[in-house]
Amino acid sequence: MKFFIAFDNSDGAKKALKFAMKFKPIADEYVICYISPLIIGAGPTYGSYTPPTVFSKSDNASQEVLNSAKELIETENVNASFLGLEASGDQIARVMTNAALERGADVIITGTRKLSGLSKVFLGSISSEIVKLSTLPVLVIPPG
Prior knowledge:
Strand 2 (29-38), helix 2 (52-73) and strand 3 (80-88) form a beta-alpha-beta unit. The protein has one domain: Rossmann fold. The protein contains five helices and five strands; from the N terminus they run E-H-E-H-E-H-E-H-H-E. The protein is 40% helix and 23% strand.
């Protein structure tokens, strides 16, 4: 069985990753994915120059998040791969669910921050959106 874990280094994501390790007896593989939110627009009509250091810093931040996931499971002795992708903020859940499908995942595991009120309006809820979009089973682990 292949488990796809959404990971952003938040407390909820760390708890979800630790919970996912409970499935070691039936897990063939874990795919741990971090999606870096694109902040800078791009396209044929986007006419500004973006220094390469901006992309370098983004790549470094993504690698740091994935390294944190590696550290959390380094003693677990599991078959794990680490995937870093990019998406605009409103497309993160869609990219996540598509990546899980493309990699043949059986289940998506994600944490949640239990946002409510204005926080949810402004920040959205990636986990809620994954549940809405996914054709795979989704296991949402609450923080705490």
